[in-house]
Amino acid sequence: MSDHPTAELDKRYMKRAMELARLGQGRTAPNPLVGAILVKDGRVIGEGWHECFGQAHAEVNAIQNAEKFHENPAGSTLYVNLEPCCHYGKTPPCTELIIKSGIARVVIGMMDPNPMVSGRGAEILQKAGISITTGVLEEDCRRLNEIFIHFITTRRPFVTIKAAVSLDGKIAAHTGASKWITGENARREVQALRNQCTAVMVGVNTVIQDDPELTCRLPEGRNPLRIILDSNLRIPRKSKVLAGTEPIPVRTMEEPVGTEEQTILACTEEADMQAANELEAMGAKVLRCRSRSGQVDLMDLMNKLGSLGIDSILLEGGGTVNAAAISQGIVNKLLLFMAPKILGGATAKTFVEGLGASTPDCAQQFQIQDVGLCGEDIRITAYPSKVASGQECK
Predict the structure, then answer these.
(1) Nearest CA to 143 among 124, 158, 122?
(2) How far is CA 336 from the centre of its chain?
């Protein structure tokens, strides 16, 4: 973008569109987060965002917001962080209403990777005589919808490893005590992540040792679906994650899985059938997956979860689960909360265990995207980059 005043205004309004989009976090999956603003004669005349799956899109809400206050959208500029849709789904195409409203210009943050749109929305608007500007704060817009982009292009959930560690990488003291390593701010942010992600996933050992509820404790927060990696269905029948579960209906990728108080148990194909029947009678869903060294093949699990419409997973596993997730290539993001403490101890658990890399050159490489403070703790956001390959890594 140039330094022309219009370019700076475009950036400013696009930032506001993204702020609005975030208001839909935890409610729109598997749809994207979208915000929209109408600007006319230097004034914002309407704002809106996609508030919930199956409800009106951001562009529609912005136009209706303008009309509610007797503002005419004709001749205005529409700012939207994602290309307007041009197909019928749960709602009519946004392009039709944009054209009908007489909007003169549309500024788009990023093009929609959905094959049903993918440039056609912008093309339809352009053919109708509407001026189109694209790529405004595109990288920021892509980060905002990283879950949607990954899911719509791979049909697998976007997996974020979350870990709370000491400065020396420990997730517990040598005694096993882990409450609390990080401070209240970090713990509150984790609750916000549970509200935003469709599912939270842990290993069965975490359930056996800690008996967590894996719910969201924010006021008016949304409980995520709970996924337990349990290769042989060892989960105690009185576990909190099994209490009050309701049977999970079959869904399509286009429909979100209802998440309230629901639990999926991922096991191998060799797991005991009687145990599976017993657990399903309790309301859990048992998902049989291919076996990999006696454990659940995580990529096979991701494919199965994707087919259920699960677009995002917050992985709160221990060192064994995290090591398997990284080595099997299902991790898309790392969110590390590091407390200013040294726990020490040769036997104290770290957040990634397993055999480990044979040399530093063989390590899974991550690219740090952001480092900041979260209360008294350090928050590190990183994305996998590449794994060194070669004879020395075998």
Answers:
(1) 158
(2) 16
